[in-house]
Amino acid sequence: MQAGLNNQPVKHLNYTEAENEQLALFCQFLYHLPYFALLLDDNLKIVESNSRYLEDTKSINTTETLEIGPGDILQCEIAGEVGCGNSLKCRYCEISNTISECRRHNSDVSRVCKLISRSDNFIKAHEFLARCSPIFIADNRFFLLTLIDITAESRKQSIEKIFFHDVLNMINGLSGLLQCMNEDMSKAEWNEYYSMLTNITSRLLETIVAQRDLVYAENKELRVNRKWISTREIIDSVMANSLFKNNNNAQIKVNVENHDLIIFTDPVLLMRVLVNMLKNALEAKNQNPLITLGCSNTENSVVFFVHNYAYISHRHAKNVFQPNWSTKDHNRGLGTYSIRLIGEYYLKGKVYFSSFPDKGTTFTIELPINTVYNNI
To answer: Is 56 helix (H, G, I), strand (E, B) or coil?
Structure first.
């Protein structure tokens, strides 16, 4: 039997020596591909993978990939819980659907696929250009899945679109206000315009810092500066944000159960998470405009939450924490992703949401009790 990749024997043991030789030769071809490549059997389990793929996903050697699915070595967070293909959520997996469609029609299938991986509690969103093709080796059908990682390019384009969209809107607002201001204005008018200018410049600075920190966060370069702060201070600071202060379109109710709860966290990052939650709630389409920003605590955790009366359907719920996806428009879609990335990896919390047609949607960040103390 000829050796496969990494000098390991080719792992299909039910073939003749001649068939294994053909398979080994094809596996040598996989090794020279400049992108990720997986050879799947007719049951859609991995037979071989090129070493480039294994090195990038930190697998030890090819023997580990026997009879597992692509999500297992891609470190898909759902596969990490129950194994690739074993969750009801797997029906929405774009990579799995690409392979299944290829198998069903016995023809090439290509599409852009998104996946969120988790490793050591660090989540990362990936975007691949996936192509699956049926091939025959020694009269046995296999599927060649190639994955070209386009994450960096796609994220760069998305951030640029969002950044340019938001910044240009605010710059246009500043320009318009400055054109309206003149020396003949009364002091009251001048103060009103000055307040609006201050508001816009604050939002502009916040937008630039938020985009910068998202890039840092994805590269594991974001610094965390924890300090003691009360839950009331957090809520008050969020409500003082220029997006919500004196906003006639924002009907925000505050619900804080324990005003004297002291937590040890990074207030800037936590407030950014809550501000993004509120922004999403304000932009959600619903007939009841009331939004609730609240905080409560249990024996084991402190919980911050934002509720609105909009409903997120099951079809959309699967994509909520994916970047570049939004129910609003093509220039949005990084807010919920940053909420989860910062909230879980950097603040060591848990971020989740629930949505019901009759009750609306609640986004929650839960911080563990070991960072919570009562202010006595």
So the answer is: helix
pLDDT tens digits, 32-57: 888 888 888 888 888 888 755 555 55
CA distances from 371 to 142, 201, 264, 302, 368 (A): 51, 34, 5, 9, 6
Residue 341 CA to residue 172 CA, distance in Å, equals 31
Give the residue extent of every domain in the chain.
5-149, 152-222, 224-376
Question: CA-to-CA distance for 262 and 230, rounded, in angstroms?
Answer: 4
* Residue 293 contacts residue 235 (beta carbons within 8 Å): yes
CATH topology of domain 224-376: Heat Shock Protein 90 (3.30.565)
Q: Please, is 69 exposed, middle or buried when counting C-beta atoms within 10 Å of its C-beta (0-12, 13-18, 19+)?
A: buried
Q: Which residue has the higher pLDDT, 138 or 176?
A: 176
Task: Report the chain's C-alpha Rg in angstroms.
Answer: 25
* Span of 49-53, 67-71, 178-182 with lowest mean pLDDT: 49-53
Q: Between 328 and 68, whose confidence is greater?
A: 68
Q: Which CATH architecture has domain 5-149?
A: 2-Layer Sandwich (3.30)
Q: Is the dihedral of CA 95, 97, 103, 109 positive or negative?
A: negative
* Predicted local confidence at residue 223, as pLDDT: 92
With a cut of 60, say whether residue 333 has pLDDT above it.
Answer: no
- Which candidate, 5, 3, 22, places its Cα nearest to that of 62? 5
Neighbour tally for 213: CB within 10 Å: 19
Alpha-carbon distances of 368 from 237, 263, 357, rounded to whole Å: 21, 10, 30
Alpha-helical runs (H) found in the chain: 17-31, 51-56, 70-73, 79-82, 94-105, 151-180, 187-218, 231-239, 267-283, 314-317, 335-340
Among 29-38, 216-225, 280-289, name the one with the lowest average pLDDT: 280-289
Instruction: Give the residue carrying structure tokens 């009790």.
Output: 369
Whole-angstrom Cα distance, residue 272 to residue 149? 29
Report the distance separating Cα 216 and Cα 341, nearest Å.
11
